[in-house]
Amino acid sequence: MKPRVYLTRRLPDAVMERLAAQTDLAFHDGAAPVAPEELHAALKDREALIPTVSDRIDAAVLAHAPVLRVIANFGVGYNNIDVAAATKRGIQVTNTPDVLTAATADVAFGLLLATARRFGEGERMVREGRWHGWDPLQLLGADIAGATLGLIGFGRIGQAVAHRARAFDMRVLYWNRTRLEPGIELELGVDYRERDELLAESDFVSLHVAYTPETHHLIDASALARMKPSAILVNTARGSIVDEAALVEALKSGRISAAGLDVFEREPHIHAGLYPLSNCVLLPHLGSATIGTRTRMGMLALDNLLAACAGKRPPNLVNPDALAAAPHR
Ligand code: 8YV
């Protein structure tokens, strides 16, 4: 029997074709996220759910899902899911690591370049007919080569950003909960710093930690105050790692020089104070947005889901305790 699956958004065609062939599929086909009532009703007989970053899957939602066995998140970050509530019910949660590492690192490095070299301001100047010719002092930015990049969080994506930075002749510092072996640091060409030291020493700070209660507002007013006035902040991880209101103040007052943001605290709502600021580049959560990456993410979510429904351990299980938990249904 094919597993009964509910998918909250349409995914790339190749994924939809495989889902249709290998599962009993129902999905929400709108341009906006599925409404709670629709999700609740859909989950009443579904064994598997594929949600995205825009779907909050908490205990209240799970209460409507009496036969759910697996939540195969479409994304590496799974802060949209109450994993503890799922584990309690014996529901497995999986994610999609690795397949989006390069695409997301590209966007982080792209934001670093775009902010340093003022691409957004230049583009707006040209499109709005305000460019009246070359000028030796026009839109002068910051040098990349020789500058210091500080990475907060040094998992797969952080390391991929370090790799790109080394190719651009940057010096790379990192902070991570667990420090790497010195041999690996040497191999990757990176140096460890405590977080406050990293903030003070870096010309660019890029965030690559998962969003958890511990990383909520990790970059707050006091962290921003430690950064150089010339420093640039890049965030492709999760919006709530940064206190957006404090960031607006820091950008307005010149406490830091610029920011490149792909993620926001209350997406798609963006702090009103960011819109008028020319020293920030704002992207609509594009980290993994390539056709190849989104296809690989969907295929991996499906691999995870099929494994769980077949009674096998999914390759990217994030809550192994769910296997032991007596299903509370
Ligand atoms: C996705 C992401 O676009 O994987 C993640 O954690 O933030 C993005 O790559 C998003 O999660 C899709 O659900």
Structural write-up:
It is a single chain. With 329 residues, the chain is of the alpha/beta class. The chain has 13 helices and twelve strands. It has helices at residues 13-22, 36-42, 59-62, 83-88, 101-116, 119-127, 156-167, 182-188, 195-201, 221-226, 244-253, 291-309, 321-324, and strands at residues 4-7, 24-27, 48-50, 70-72, 92-94, 148-152, 171-175, 190-192, 204-207, 232-235, 258-261, 280-282. A seven-stranded parallel β-sheet has the order 8-7-6-9-10-11-12, sandwiched between helices. A five-stranded parallel β-sheet has the order 2-1-3-4-5. Helix 1 (13-22) packs parallel to helix 12 (291-309) and helix 5 (101-116) packs across helix 7. The radius of gyration is 21 Å and the shape is globular. It starts with a strand and ends in a 5-residue tail after the last helix. Bound molecules: 2-keto-D-gluconic acid (8YV). 2-keto-D-gluconic acid binds next to loops.
